[in-house]
């Protein structure tokens, strides 16, 4: 039996990148041999084993054929006579279909090295279509490496979308790929590729609907709301923001797709209108709570955050309470980070200041800078306490907010 390093580890080593997980393929062995050598099987009916010491994955060389829709539809054929080349041929992209033997020799029957050098994501064979997750993977690798999708692969992905292949994807896999892609260096590339092949219209129709929707050129020199959205997402990545923040950046303007045509390019009320579509996306892909909550919060309140300079002190306190900022200060700060990305994700505005962020944080600190126990103790009736605390918070906020309003008069 021979073992070869395969897939991502070979690719990343050739790119000079640090290796993450290492996957191995085993040729000329069967399950019995693996078990005798102490390898541990991973699940049933699946020719993958864990090394007894390194715990790295060793898969028997296999061919793969789809016999029905969905994941249950896969049948593997693993046998000692399956060759390395046959195993590589069933893989998704040429850059992922290379192996390395024990002497360091690269086995590259599909010219993955040439595509790596050219920065191209190209499918290995028509078997690419057997797994629609590969569309998401391809978009994610574009986001990671900045590579282009080969024209024939883009055409194949379009065919897959048109054939309804993307409709069958399950929430867990979609979210897993989206989340990984959002955390890459160029997440906007992932969205561009998904848009170009039509998968975005299936997976995130609410985001796809933003393309072609105009905005006021004075606030948004890039005009197109879809382009703005991708610029905001990219700013969020460039700022090193977290997954919930990047996800919220992607969804913050969903309401703009619902603006009545007669008020375009204005978008009054898009913050309120966006909440339902954000909730739809959250539910469709079973988005984890931290991401789902922040996306809804940012969508609903980003216009208010931007226009703090127009608010009365009492309104500021009301917003701090409604956003739950007093109890969830970190989430509030995360929302403000997304607002910075929103402001900078506009053509020519990449270095805009956003004094609103520091000001909101100062307002929040002021509102928290009261002695609630002492205030409660001074109240004669329990039902007076809440109003007394509010009054004390307001007294803290008022001078700050009045000073800010004298200096700034931003509105959205
Ligand atoms: N849908 C898939 C998933 C995986 N693979 C193959 O299995 C290898 C390992 O898969 P995985 O670890 O998921 O991806 P990597 O390419 O290693 O990428 P990452 O760096 O994200 O782990 C891939 O390189 C590819 O050859 C595939 O062909 N089709
Ligand atoms: Mg891997």
Tell me what the structure shows.
The protein is an alpha+beta fold. The chain has helices at 8-14, 31-36, 84-89, 112-118, 133-145, 151-162, 171-182, 187-197, 199-203, 205-208, 225-238, 243-251, 270-273, 275-284, 289-306, 313-322, 329-344, 355-368, 372-378, 385-407, and strands spanning 2-6, 23-27, 40-41, 48-50, 57-60, 62-66, 74-78, 99-100, 106-107, 120-121, 148-149. Among the domains are: 1-117, Beta Polymerase, domain 2; 132-203, Hydrophobic Seed Protein (Orthogonal Bundle), CATH 1.10.110.30. A hairpin with a 5-residue loop joins strand 8 (99-100) and strand 9. The longest helix has 23 residues, at 385-407. It is elongated. Bound molecules: cytidine-5'-triphosphate and magnesium ion (MG).
Short description:
The chain has 412 residues and is of the alpha+beta class.
Biggest β-sheet: strands ordered side by side in the sheet: 3-4-5-2-1-8-9
At the fourth CATH level, what is the homologous superfamily of one domain? Answer: Beta Polymerase, domain 2
**Span between N and C termini?**
66 Å
CATH class of one domain: Alpha Beta
CATH architecture of one domain: 2-Layer Sandwich
Runs in which pLDDT lies below 50 for 5 or more consecutive residues are: none
Strand content bin: 5-15%
What structural category do the secondary elements indicate?
alpha+beta
